[in-house]
Amino acid sequence: MTKVLGHWKLFSSDDKWDEYMRTLGINFVLRKVGNSITSYEEMKQNGDQWELNITSTFKNAHLKFKLGEEFDETTLDGRKCKSTFVIEGEDLVHYQKGIKPGEVDSKITRTRVDDETMTITLEAIGKDLTTVRTFKKYTP
Q1: Between the CA of residue 31 and those of 28, 110, 134, 138, what are the distances in Å?
Q2: Among 50, 84, 88, 112, which is least packed by CB within 10 angstroms?
Q3: C-alpha 114: how far from its chain's center?
């Protein structure tokens, strides 16, 4: 599963991105930041060890993981969750489980659309809400 490896730059978000963030409990100020920043992702794999570097004009994150193994994650907006990455078909899927009662879980699916495009579909589990962000391949 190497289709999503490489460097990606946010190209667009659909009209449900803000609603998705609000559903997760992200406050107004952080949603405004989330709506205005440019985000970059770099996905690397070395054997069974994967790395996801997310950088933006606001905050950065670095995740190291093995497929199927749960780990502790602090999201860019500060939420703490239990995360697991798995392969489903041709997609890399990231499950985030909230730790606090009432927190919304997420399913984040990275799909390679073509040589230059990757979509990230974010689903608020149990809330009937999905948003799609489109990334384009780039050379840093």
Answers
A1: 5, 22, 18, 26
A2: 88
A3: 19
Query: Each residue of 95-126: pLDDT tens digit?
Result: 999 999 999 999 999 999 999 999 999 999 99
Structure tokens at 23: 């559903």
Residue 48's CB is within 10 A of a number of other CB atoms, namely 10
Q: CA neighbours within 13 Å on the CB side: how many for 95?
A: 13
Block residue for tokens 């606090």: 100
- Rounded to the nearest 5°, which phi and psi values hold at 69? -105, 125
CB atoms within 10 A of CB 133: 18
Parallel, antiparallel or unpaired: strands 129-137 and 61-65: unpaired
Query: Residue 1 has what pLDDT?
Result: 55
